[in-house]
Write a structure and sequence with these properties.
With about 290 residues, the chain is of the alpha/beta class. It is about 50% helix and about 15% strand. The protein folds into two domains: about 5-230, TIM Barrel (Alpha-Beta Barrel); about 235-285, no CATH class. The protein has helices at about 15-20, 40-50, 55, 75-80, 95-115, 130-135, 135-140, 150-155, 165-185, 200-210, 225-230, 235-255, 270-285, and strands at about 5-10, 25-30, 60-65, 90, 120-125, 145-150, 185-190, 215-220, 260, 265. Helix 2 (about 40-50) packs parallel to helix 4 (about 75-80), helix 4 crosses helix 5 and helix 12 crosses helix 13.
């Protein structure tokens, strides 16, 4: 999931184009991009879309960002969008472990009511000071949680932190990545609002990749290619990872704990990283014959 494109749930004319586009995942939004008087219409539109053959037959990860749990829209959103075509619910602003568990319970009820047999996962937005402090606890609250998504605008703006302050971005990224690592889930990067600033988007995506994030959100199709490029393992990375995995297999057979590949000392943490790179490359069809 190198790239995840936000699509307003109230704009069905964009759905087919998004499905045909290059983003690995689509995040249909019922929250910020939908006006209050169009919430009911948008959730009905999303329900019909998720039940359609086009959505269920596609190869993209389908996500819906619902409204927060403390709004009057959350329950209706869950009941409408937890359908056979949905993979993940994106939950804004979870404030406690109890919030996460209550969201899971709501998803489970909707699965039972709507005949959903494949368990829907939960992606948690970390976009408040409290959420950042509790990120590891939130991520570990339930096995349905698959990842933490950083929301820098919501996190920074109320605190008066400049969104472009790289030192602040670095600290927030590191905190979320460590929390995700503790819980054994992925970390996903924030949106970047300045669509015209291609260099800024790329720089932030590259930083997120160096920090071990899975991918970056896109608010416009023009950002997709950059995200896909940045979060793609390079040919050199893939080649080295294949060597490490092969050397690990040979070392395991011989009972050797540490060894050298391309002049670098290799032990279990490096093997784990190499296997992750190989798995990503395999999923993208990048492994050599």
């Amino acid at each position: 999931m190198r790239s995840k494109l936000f699509v307003p749930g109230s704009r069905p004319e964009l759905f087919a184009k998004a499905l045909a586009g290059a983003a690995d995942a689509l995040s249909f939004d019922l929250e910020d991009s939908v006006a209050a008087d169009r919430k009911a219409e948008a959730r009905k539109t999303m329900r019909e879309f998720l039940l359609a053959n086009a959505a269920q037959a596609g190869n993209k990860t389908l996500i819906v960002r619902v409204n927060a749990m403390d709004t009057p829209h959350f329950a209706a959103d869950i009941d409408a969008v937890v359908q056979p075509g949905l993979h993940t619910v994106n939950l804004p602003k979870p404030g406690s472990v109890e919030d996460v568990r209550a969201a899971v319970a709501a998803i489970e009820r909707a699965e039972a009511a709507n005949g959903v047999t494949q368990k829907v996962k939960l992606l948690l937005n970390i976009e408040s000071a409290r959420g950042l402090r509790m990120a590891a606890e939130l991520a570990g609250a339930h096995k349905r949680v698959c990842g933490l998504q950083l929301g820098l605008a919501d996190l920074f703006e109320p605190l008066g932190i400049v969104r472009s302050e790289v030192s602040a971005v670095r600290q927030a990224m590191f905190a979320v990545r460590m929390a995700a690592g503790e819980a054994g889930v992925f970390a996903y990067d924030s949106a970047y609002a300045n669509i015209k600033d291609e260099a800024g988007y790329r720089a932030e995506a590259e930083l997120a990749r160096r920090f071990g994030f899975l991918g970056k959100s896109c608010i416009h199709p023009s950002q997709i290619a950059t995200a896909n490029e940045v979060f793609r393992p390079s040919n050199e990375e893939i080649a080295h990872a294949l060597k490490v995995v092969a050397a690990a297999r040979e070392a395991d057979a011989k009972g050797v704990g540490a060894y050298v590949v391309d002049g670098k000392m290799i032990d279990p943490p490096f093997v784990a990283r190499a296997r992750a790179i190989v798995a990503t490359a395999e999923g993208l069809g990048l492994l050599p014959e």
